[in-house]
Amino acid sequence: MRVSWLLLSIWLVANANAASASTRLYEDMSVLTSSEHQGREAGSPTPNITAQFLHERFQSLGIEVNYQSFEFKNGFFSKKLGHNVIATLPCTVDQCGKKLVITAHYDHLGGRENSFYAGANDNATGTAALLAIAKVLKEQTRFSDVIFLATDAEEKGLYGAKHYVSETDINGYALNINLDMLAINNRNTLYALHDKKAKKYIEQFKQQENPFKVFSTSSQFRLHKKLNDNRINWHKASDHYAFSLKKIPYIYFGMGIDDKHHTKKDTLDNMNFEKYQAVVESISDFIVSLAQIPLDSTN
Ligand SMILES: [Zn+2]
After folding, report:
1. What is the model's pLDDT at position 22?
2. What would the mean pLDDT of 7-20 be, rounded to a whole number?
3. Which Pfam families does this one have (predicted)?
4. How close is the Cα of 137 to the center of ligand 1, in Å?
């Protein structure tokens, strides 16, 4: 009797934790896509409301966080200041592997308070996922430093990610995992484009019990064929490209072609939150498992 009460209370606590994680993910998505954030336009003289929100959220999780500012070209003649938000969970063992950096761009197309681009899928999904994964990973043993990099000015030309890698000693890095557009739709498929050197890691992800299909490839050609669409150069389409230019292995997770991409219909109401949540949980499990081994980019 006692044992079953104990099991029941463990079950209740586990479910309460899962429920609160899901509520928090929904709340973060709501904030990022709200009219206050006005479509998260890239660049501002000082960190904008979205950068400040992310900074506060990482801080409230007890994770060290900093801004990294950079200049970027905005049109032919003008420049703007962008602000990456960088949170770091340090390695917790003596023999640390190389670093793991998880990226998601928080900027989108902007707009005005009463008419703005919410950018729910692109890329509030990746940004809110960073917060959810950081919360889980904070409680785990880590064999590598894990860096959560929320980039600015991706939409303008991957400027935040390019600036980050320009300031970085690439030898210290094992892997970049880039999250951009995670709201999988009725195809129920998560796409993973990866560097050849990251193949063993993606195989590990595919061995998990994921409640959706995973299509992974290092071949742009195969991805075009699978999506029946060859308009997008996926190797260059998001922040992972900045890491690949520096020879850092990468995995890019995304949902493929979105017919609401860069329209005002890319809203939280128009995406399937449960499917998105399942994607975040799977990627979170994957990153926890990667953190349990000393990573090295050469093996
Ligand atoms: Zn994007």
Report:
1. 83
2. 72
3. Peptidase_M28 (PF04389)
4. 24
Distance between CA atoms of 297 and 299, rounded to whole angstroms? 6
Task: Decide if pLDDT at 299 tops 50.
Answer: no
Whether residue 298 is contained in a domain is answered as no
- Ligand 1 center to 160 CA (angstroms): 13
**Cβ–Cβ < 8 Å for 258, 185:** yes
Q: Domain span at residue 149?
A: 2-291
Q: How far is the centre of ligand 1, averaged over its atoms, from the C-alpha of 6 (Å)?
A: 45
166: CATH: 3.40.630.10
* Residue 6 resides in a domain: yes
pLDDT digit string, tens, across residues 102-138: 999 999 999 987 899 999 999 999 999 999 999 999 9
Cα–Cα distance, 41 to 91 (Å, whole number): 34
Going from the Cα of 1 to the center of ligand 1, the distance in angstroms, rounded, reads 53
Residue 287 alpha carbon to ligand 1 centre in Å:
21
Distance 105 CA to ligand 1 centre (A): 7
Q: Are strands 64-74 and 78-89 parallel, antiparallel or unpaired?
A: antiparallel
